[in-house]
Write a structure and sequence with these properties.
Translation Initiation Factor IF3, single chain, 3 helices, 3 strands, 108 residues, three-stranded antiparallel beta sheet, alpha+beta
Length: 108
């Protein structure tokens, strides 16, 4: 499968997950895979009629050597797919560093 076909298949997968779950999440290697995912998210957003954002975790946060990426409508707070609370929680968990991830201790 060539790169363009792979991106189009990824865009179709994102569309299907948006319609069924309200978001799309995947673990992938940083680099070209992330660029391809962002391209596919732009295409998927055009098909569903909204702007999509890709929220990216730190490398190795969930899977060693990979980033976790959540693709969701940029207006997820406005309930475009009716799952704003679920998407919001996932985004916050994805982006909030845990205490173990911090180099300095948290103050009370």
């Amino acid at each position: 499968m060539d790169a363009i076909t792979a991106r189009e298949c990824l865009a179709d997968t994102i569309i299907d997950r948006l319609r069924s779950e309200g978001f799309f999440m995947i673990d992938l290697a940083p680099g070209q895979d992330l660029i391809d995912l962002r391209w596919a998210a732009l295409v998927a957003g055009r098909h569903v009629g909204c702007h999509l954002e890709a929220f990216v975790s730190d490398v190795g946060r969930s899977v060693p050597g990979k980033v976790t990426v959540l693709v969701a409508p940029s207006a997820w707070r406005a309930r475009p797919f009716g799952l704003d609370t679920a998407v919001g929680s996932i985004v916050q968990d994805l982006l909030r560093p845990s205490v173990a991830d911090r180099e300095v201790p948290l103050s009370a």
